[in-house]
User: What shape does this take?
Amino acid sequence: MSNPWQPYAGHILDAIDKIRRIQMRGDLTKDDILYDAVLRNLQTLSEATQLLPVEKKQAYPSIPWREISGFRNILVHNYLGDIDPQTIVAVIEKHLTPLEACVREMLLSE
Assistant: This one.
């Protein structure tokens, strides 16, 4: 019997919700506390995607699963030096909504 994956999907949705609430508090490119909070939630989100079943992720090839997973390593280990806040904003704007829709669909199809 495999471990349930739904709690990890919930972590992803919670992290997305927190990122959106953080963004409502101000400009994360100008406030290092907001920026750090967003980075932490992106790390949580990235880690949780690694724990979703492969067959579920394969059903959504438009989501860059491998890149999301790799992004966690960049965030945690800071391989590329200081991460640029504008890049983080671009990642959020481009990928959060499609990822959220995908995870919600996964949960509904269960």
